[in-house]
Amino acid sequence: xxxxxxxxxxxFIAATALFVWSCWKRLSLTALGRPEERLDxxxxxxxxxxxxxxxxxRVLAKPSGLIHVAIFWCFLVLMIANxxxxxxxxxxxxxFTRLPxxxxxxxxxxxxxxxxxxLLAVTAAAIxxxxxxxxxxxxTFEAFFILFLIATxxxxxxGVNAAKISRMQGSTLVLAESIMPISSWFAPYVPSGxxxxxxxxxxxxxxxxLLLFMNLLPLSKxxxxxxxIPNVFLRRREHPPLPEREEFSAGNSFGINRxxxxxxxxLLDAFSCTECGRCQMACPADQTGKPLxxxxxxxxxxxxxxxxxxxxxxxxxxxxxxxxxxxxxxxxEAIWACTTCGACLQxxxxxxxxxxxxxxxxxxxxxxxxxxxxxxxxxxxxxxGRSNPWGIAPTERGKWASQLGDxxxxxxxxxxxxxxxxxxxxxxxxxxxxxxxxxxxxxxxxSWGMLGKDEKCCGDSLRRLGNEYVFDKxxxxxxxxxxxxxxxxxxxxxxxxxxxxxxDYRQYGIELEVIxxxxxxxxxxxxxxxxxxxxxxLGKLVYHDSCYLGxxxxxxxxxxxxLALATGAEPxxxxxxxxxxxxxxxxxxxxxxxEFTGDRINLVRAAEALEQQPDTICTACPYCLTMLDDGIKDxxxxxxxxxxxxxxxxxxxxx
Length: 655
Description:
InterPro entries: 4Fe4S_Fe-S-bd (IPR017896), 4Fe4S_Fe_S_CS (IPR017900), Cys_rich_dom (IPR004017), HdrC_iron-sulfur_subunit (IPR051460), Helical_ferredxn (IPR009051), NarG-like_sf (IPR036197). This is 4Fe-4S ferredoxin-type domain-containing protein. One of its GO terms (molecular function) is metal ion binding. Keywords: 4Fe-4S, Iron, Iron-sulfur, Membrane, Metal-binding, Oxidoreductase, Transmembrane, Transmembrane helix. By secondary structure, the protein is mostly helical. Helix content is about 55%, strand content about 5%. The chain contains 27 helices and 8 strands. The chain has helices spanning about 5-25, 40-55, 65-90, 100-130, 140-165, 170-180, 180-185, 195-215, 225-235, 265-270, 280, 285, 295-315, 330-335, 345, 360-370, 375-385, 420-425, 430-445, 460-465, 470-485, 495-500, 515-525, 555-565, 600-610, 620-635, 645-655; strands at about 415-420, 450, 490, 515, 540-545, 570-575, 615-620, 640-645. The strands form 2 sheets. A 4-stranded parallel β-sheet has the order 2-1-3-4, with helices on both faces. The chain has a 4-stranded parallel β-sheet with strand order 6-5-7-8. β5 (about 540-545), α24 and β6 (about 570-575) form a beta-alpha-beta unit. The longest helix has about 30 residues, at about 100-130. It starts with a helix and ends with a helix.
């Protein structure tokens, strides 16, 4: 059948109308979300879009990303060819041959070569899904069908061109072979006298598959082809991502238990997921057999939005619960399994915000339903009553400093507040880190003081566990105390304190200069204020990245540099390190919870450290130290010691 506008135009109009309607049906659901400002810093957003959406920076972080980059860029080039194809079908006079030769010939050559690259890339993608899928569920009919359609488009394009070439002779044939070298390979296989038939069949195959492909996009995960680039442009620029403050007044509801409780951008995330599985493969909960899968969380959010959106638009109650069991609901066990390590955020190529969606669900369970794991009851009561997780009397906070004498923070005299934190004040093992840090500060002549019994927990675990009410109370009290005493510069040894004081407290109107002890100790050595008379002999030392120090605050180099100076050798690296580091299992309030499902996260990380055959494992976080120390003991590797960076530095400076 010869392609004619009278046949193609109605098909094109119908397919385009259906495509627009399908896109609108889904994207309009994002309007159910709460307002949110995501159009600030336009210049930076454009730069991010060029870097992450077009240059595919995060995609290329994995070798398999090369396949996707090839398909993506070929797709952009072939959009030119397909636009001409559609216009030619509607208006036969529109054709690339009308272009000047200087544009026409290289353009056709590029399209021809790019079509081959696309065919090879989709073949490689299909083989990878068969042989080594990114996750077991990746072998879906939809994925293979989409790859099949793309391959069919490429072969149909070659068929159209090969049929044209088969009917050429002389110099015209030579020219065609030079500008369409790939299509020329297929030309000899076109049966003699069947050139027009092959051309028409190939043209209509290309046309119908292209229209079908276009209309499958909004109905599948491949909708991300349309939404991913805008999603990158609208990415959250705040780092680390902070939970929103809540207003505690009569009649308010807290947290989220309905899909329209999220913002419009958070709902756009649901349609932007590529289902590449990178978040899943990085998630410590998923990788240790917990029911939490960040990829599935986003899929469940999308299914819930699709199920409840039409009802909510009409003002009716949601029919499918957001928190619950099923493909369109997120289970409570999954909600509580998150360690808030940020690995999902770090790994997502299109900047979907998986982890921040779980904290509002925790808030609803804690603040509206009083439903939370039983072991958290003591934590919440202790925090509310005595401002620390153990419920120990505040008068005990400063007793670790008995050998140092009374060291109160004095406004106008003390340069730094040493914010010791709950672990450093009450945990027997962490107190050794506190003493080592204090002695090193004294040795360097740093002017510091502490709050003693007036110090309260920063509230990190409370906030990440969803108990925003008690966190809000602690944060307000701490901020008021800091302002009253004129505190501006703070030393911490816990990355969770670092994040909370430096980042979360900005929401409460205070800007603090917060420095982690690993950073300060390095600076003191580099400045010559801390002398290293000898090198700490701790054997082979491997360093573990704290998620809250690394991914949440981008502090990777300083701890390593400090360890290298103290020991005279670069620390060993685990296979998963820096941005790809694996959580110890204590973040997100999980420090105070048990693991009843799957493998223990701290055992997995401790075993990974032991693979390096170290003598010492070094951390820069009291939570990490506890989790790894327990893991080493459980794995019967007591000969391996676990030390904090301050203790390693003290070995070189004080002994």
